Amino acid sequence: MKKALSLILIISILLLQSCELFYPEQPLGSIHVISVGLNYKGTGIRVLRGTINDTQEIEQCLASLSTRHLRTYHSYSLLQRGGAGIDEYDQPGNAISLPTKSNVLNRISALAADLTENDLTIFNFNGHGNDDGSLILASPNPDGKIILDENNRPLDKETLLSVTELLTALANLPGKQLLILDSCYSGSFVEGSGSSVSLIEKRVFLEEAIFTYFSSTGYSPSTFVLAATTNDNYSYETGDVFHKHGRFTETLLAGLGWDHETNTLNPKIPAMKKGVLTTDSLYAYVLENQERLHASMYFSLYQHPTISGGAYSLRLF
Amino acid sequence: MRRTFLVLLALILITSNSLWSKGKIIYALDFSDSYYAAIPHFEDEIPFRSSNATSIAVGLFGYATENFSAGLDLHTMFVTPSIPFGNYQGRGFNSVGFRVRGSYQVNRRVGLFTSISSEANYYRTIKEAFISYSLQLGPQFRVFETGMHTIDITVPLTIHLRKEITAPMLGIGIRYTLGPHRNEESQ
Fold first, then answer.
1. Is A296 helix (H, G, I), strand (E, B) or coil?
2. Nearest-10 crossing angle of helices A247-255, A51-68
3. Cα separation of A139 and B92, whole Å?
4. pTM of this prediction?
5. Cβ B130–A197 below 8 Å, yes or no?
6. N or C: which end of chain A has fewer CB within 10 A?
7. What is the mean predicted confidence (pLDDT) over A77-83?
8. Has domain A2-307 been given CATH number 3.40.50.2000?
9. Does A230 touch chain B (CB under 8 A)?
10. Sign (positive/negative) of CA torsion A247, A255, A314, A104?
11. Smallest CA–CA distance from A27 into chain B, residue
């Protein structure tokens, strides 16, 4: 009996030695948000009526959350919202804030000087995605027209920001990065983690998991992705008439506690678990609630959100 | 999967006959709770992250002699997300796998056991899977014994080998064994 008690005592002491209890925890760093949204009015391609709401409300919501959790917050918006008419492009004077490829990449690289290793950069995109995952951005031409080929792909590559270009630009920043993408084929940004295998749309995994275990690819938790859909599927907007959103972003905002009718942050953050909001808790909320929230209108339209794999989730607040 | 299940079922049915004869086939049920220290192979803010691991194993069939026993266990494990620290939190996951377990009874009260296993693991929240391997050893202390039933308190020390993490685990458990644990004729 004495031996058993001694063992229990030793184990209890070992438990109390856990790193988290003895390492001094630094406060979380500042948050930098780059918001990119396009509704494509006047560009000649299909207009999206929820994207600007998405971009603006995500930005406001993150600002409110940062204030509540005493985090330093900076935001940079690049919006293409068009003119008053449905076919009217943005005024030429707004060129500097238009989400062209060069403006977006310059904005990202300009951030580097302000960031520390403890800071978090969030890149949020709401707009069209090409079938290779590339984000369709504003044309550098003054008329804003985006010409498509016979397969509905933009002819001008300057309107496409590819997966590699964006991930490389973000990987060059100090600190941690989170991409929130609500566009078709956005799952293309969720690269294999190098340590685990996604089971979304997959049943057989053992062979691939064994191959991954013994492969030379490594895992590094710095850039995380939350994407609206898989790499081979569309992302849809809600059916609302007056105040549209992307289905994914609307659920994401609900998980963050955002009331988009009053544009205020609720006291309760539904996706927060035990006082901590992580990419995983947010993703779990979206998975659980997206279909329920939109089931009546979009029962048959498949859209499965995706997230970066691997051992860690990213803590947001 | 179905074929594997049928083969296992057949083996259990064949071997279960020995429970009621003078044979030495044993079955077991094992429960343990461990402290799980995830040591990353990549750069992190702290040397390791802490979780809790609960393990349940069923000894599908084993063989026992006077002092030795060996068997095949189907084991499952539930690892909680780590304590949040800094910018990250280790993801929680469930495991299922097979392990080969052996034990040696030093005397009537104290024994040693060891096992080697492979598992398929599933990150609950994000629908991702990975495989891992485990090595385990530790002492076991017999607290109850009849002709057909034994209960041991175990102190398993486990090394969980994941691709990007090595996780030592230390815990306490209980193992129930059904079957003739000793050769009664020799006593």
1. helix
2. 20
3. 44
4. 0.87
5. yes
6. N
7. 93
8. no
9. no
10. positive
11. B86
